[in-house]
Amino acid sequence: SPPGLFLLTSFLLHVEDGCANPTRLVCDKRLIQKYIEEAKDMEKRAGQCQALPALSCPAVLPLVDFSLQQWKSKSNETKRREILCDLALLVGAVAGAQDQVTQECGTRQLSQLYRQANSFLLFLQTFGWEAGPWEPGCSPRSVEQTHVTGIFLTYRQLVQGKLRFFFHDLAKDLCK
């Protein structure tokens, strides 16, 4: 959709310019809400694809549920690293699913999901964090999934949960 494309483009412009201040992405609550809606739409469209096959090689997905009480007790850097681990595992799962799904509807939805999840991953990796750059090597709690729709569900839950609350926490400092 054109509005979604505009938001994705503006998001990617923030990502590509390493010196860019991500204040708009964090402070404009409409943007994260838009990403949540897009995640819901992708999940719905993937569910409408006819005869999506089960994955012969299961996707390893992060378990993205969390306790809000525990979440609030973590530093923003710890939250960022946790989300990065989840996103890295999710992006890998999407790439693996793309290799297995040949149906056009499914491949189209997986491509969109890959772009969006990878954009968030790049954003969280490259933004000038005080604790330095992220380095891979984490091992988040995970689960194997053979249904393609489970990948979309995990992404929506991640954006709707940890990512939204993380941006909310960052906004307290950045958006005064």
TrEMBL record:
Q: Which GO terms describe its cellular component?
A: extracellular region
What SUPFAM superfamilies does the database record attribute to this sequence? 4-helical cytokines
Using the record, list the residue span of the signal peptide; answer none if the entry has no such feature.
1-20
Q: Which UniProt keywords are present, listed alphabetically?
A: Disulfide bond, Glycoprotein, Hormone, Secreted, Signal
Localization, UniProt: Secreted
Instruction: Write down the InterPro entries for this protein, in alphabetical order.
Output: 4_helix_cytokine-like_core, EPO/TPO_CS, EPO_TPO, Thrombopoietin
Query: Is Signal a UniProt keyword of this protein?
Result: yes
UniProt GO MF annotations: cytokine activity; hormone activity
- Locate the transmembrane regions by residue number: none
Could you give a single Gene Ontology term from the biological process aspect? thrombopoietin-mediated signaling pathway
Similarity comment: family membership: Belongs to the EPO/TPO family.
Report the protein name in the record. TPO protein
